Amino acid sequence: MKLKFYHNSSDPIVVSKSISQIGNDVNGTLRGPCSVREPVIVIEKFTGFNVANCNYMYCDEFDRYYYITDIVALNNDLYEIHGKVDVLKTFASGIRSNSAIVSRQQKEYSLYLPDNFYKSYANPNFEIKRFPKGFSGHYYILTVASS
Amino acid sequence: MKILKVPAYIYQNNVQKGPYQVTFLQDNAIVEKYKSYTTETVIQRWEDLTDNSISQKVNSYLGFNLMNNLYPIYIGLDQNGVMGNWELDFINFANLDVKTVTGLTRTDRTQGFPNTNVKLLNDCESVQGSGCGYRQIDENHTVLRDYIYSVLSSSYRVLVDGVYNYAEISITVWPEDIFNSEGVYDSTKIPVEFTITAGFNRSGANFTSVSSITLRVHYHATDNNSLVNQWQPAFNLANSQSSTNDTENPFPEDNEPNGGDGTQGDPNTIDPTPVPDLPDIDTTNFVTIYNPTASALDSLASFLWSNLFDVNTFKKVYGNPMDTIISLAVLPCVPSSMGTKHIKFGNVDSEVTSSYCSKQFAEVECGGVTIKKIVGGFTDYTPYVKISLFLPYIGFVHLDTDDVMSGTISVTYHVDCISGDLVAFVSHNEKGVLYSYNGNCLCNIPVTQGNYAGALKNYYQQIAGVIPATVQGAASGGAAGAAMGAFSSAYNAGVNISLNTKPTYQRSGSMSGAAGIMGVQRPFIVIERPNISVPKNLAHYAGQMCNKTMSLNDCKGLTICEAVHLDGIANATSEELREIETLLKNGVIL
Fold this sequence. Notes:
Shape of chain B: rod-shaped
Low-confidence stretches of chain A: none
Largest sheet of chain A: 6 strands, antiparallel, barrel
Shape of chain A: rod-shaped
Order of helices and strands of chain A: EEEEEEEHHEEE
Radius of gyration of chain B: 37 Å
Strand content of chain B: 25-35%
Oligomer: heterodimer
Distance between the termini of chain B: 41 Å
Mean pLDDT of chain A: 89
């Protein structure tokens, strides 16, 4: 199977990861049963680049992107690459074609929805406003029984 | 009334966006006759729009595949029967079994295709697989290509003006009786009323057959020359009773049984109650309300104890000259004067001149203050902002922030100049009178040891027929009783206030009577706002509250989903689907 090795500089929760391929495509071999989600692939040591600098790969056989979780040197000639599928990158287009009830969003939001991330300092702000007018002066009022 | 909603969302360049929602209220006759009718229109700007991505966009918005082989799909070709490459791409992408209808004119295509096997719709059933269309226009809005891909009139359009791309989805569910018994569409049966619903080109639309239309518009554009701005005049709003409203998503969404079957009217209907007019009651001939000056009072006192006062004459009516004095008091206001005349005790003329009043009630207008939102968010409302209002002769009262925020609050007093009872009306510039409080502003001046309250009580019983609480208290307990009467009213009002608002500290006691005279004479308002702490770049790290159903393709940046049903990810294992769902609920960056 053909493998592409990358350096991934994006957070794991990023769907469209920023990856840059390192070296050329590499042929790998499956040794025994292999999970498509967490494959272990053996590759021959090669001189094109240092695989230890890679943290991400793509396997065309499985059509999936993988985080490289571990690299084990079996001997002087073989590396064992442990991968874990990156479902976000692999199924990015399928994910984007779905709709969801979005509770929090970076760009699309309403400040009129109460948010527990907002905290209040102990010292409040005060605004005091006087009304333009009110009672003015005092008047004697004499009420007498007479016409 | 039944609301037929035509929500539309316009996403503008420069990240500015403005949901654009139109709500139609149709009269019962139309709705009852054509129950299966509904229309939704969405206008949305999408990045990187290509022909092949159209169906993805549409499906994403609708939540189901707009184009599928469950329903016949016809391609309308022009008179030459030519199908363009982009049309072929479109068909191939969706892998559709497509039939073609040739020789159609544009009118045919925009009004739908005859002889299609259209699914008959049940009441309130939504459309599926209706179709879509495509239109491209240049910066001068000249149609470059126009293509309707449709079963009936449902359409999807992309408008390109060189800078912006806008897409319009129009989905129309037609009433059952425009189809014949074989399910064949009969254009002659389209009711005239439905001409208003053919998408968003509404110039010349006929609104006259609709009893009322509420058009809600949210629109924020950074580019005044944008295509959307130019569309706005296309809405014929004449006689539409249009109004703006901030409700983007009127709740509930539908009026199906099992709840949500309310009238779906505008929940912000306000019929404001104005401050009432003063009671238009003249003083009776039994009493006269004088407004003497201090010197006039001195002269009057001299008269009462001089030889000029003929006791024998006076006793024909009263046993004691002081019996005629109902009250002598100080008030902070006075009814308008009717002129001057001699002060009389019964039929005895003191020959002391004083101005007098023809009305018993006076009004004091205190003006208004505006309460502004600081943030423009939930922290501007209850329970974060507390608002207290000091009312002279009443004391502090608490206002519900939700009632008064972002409005002008006015205070108007109505005062009874005989008893001193007053009512303060607190009104909002849009909502009218929201609060009214009672108090007393009478500061009595002792004249004799006689019980003046008894005279007051007699006056009200014989003349007015009503005994104010203040007078009742005075009648039973003199001045102290009067004070208690006033205090009791204020206390009861205070109890009601404290039960209906969250606990807070009392800023004053009762300010009635003499205490009020010595107190602050002008209302003022105290607004206590929270000192909010918001982490920098909160939206980037944690997002902000959204609570909307959205296409994930339209979400940019951090997105945390409350609920999602993943469809159309064919290659993923069930474990991977579960992981995707978990990640979406924990937050991903799109």
